[in-house]
Amino acid sequence: MKRRIQIVNDDPQQEPMLPLINIVFLLLIFFMIAGSLQKLGPFDVDPPASATATAQAPDTLVIWVGQGGEVGVDAPQGRIEDVSSLLPTDYAGRPVEIRADRGVEGTRVVGLLKRLQVLGVDKVQLMTAVEPEE
Fold this sequence. Notes:
The chain is an alpha/beta fold. It has helices at about 20-35, 85, 105-120, and strands at about 50, 60-65, 70, 75-80, 95-100, 125, 130.
């Protein structure tokens, strides 16, 4: 009488990882496209409210003005009088957006505007937060 020998594989079955990797990459791509990345300034500002809003040009240079009157462009920080040393070398002809805190004195912002005018900046916008509708 012949006996059949049945070989049983005792190794645990591994689940395929490819579907999980595909899902992770799809989620990554979704959040990269859906999320908007905004360049953060050297410090936080709380802008004043406004009823209108306009789009920002892609090559706009952003100047941050803090509540204490400090001025920042990207990472460098300083005073309004030193704004010329904070600006990049290619600032001429580029539009400038001022993001001032709502608690900063208006005279400081006017002083910054005058300093930018002396430096030859033609296009300046003041960034404000959109006022919620009632």
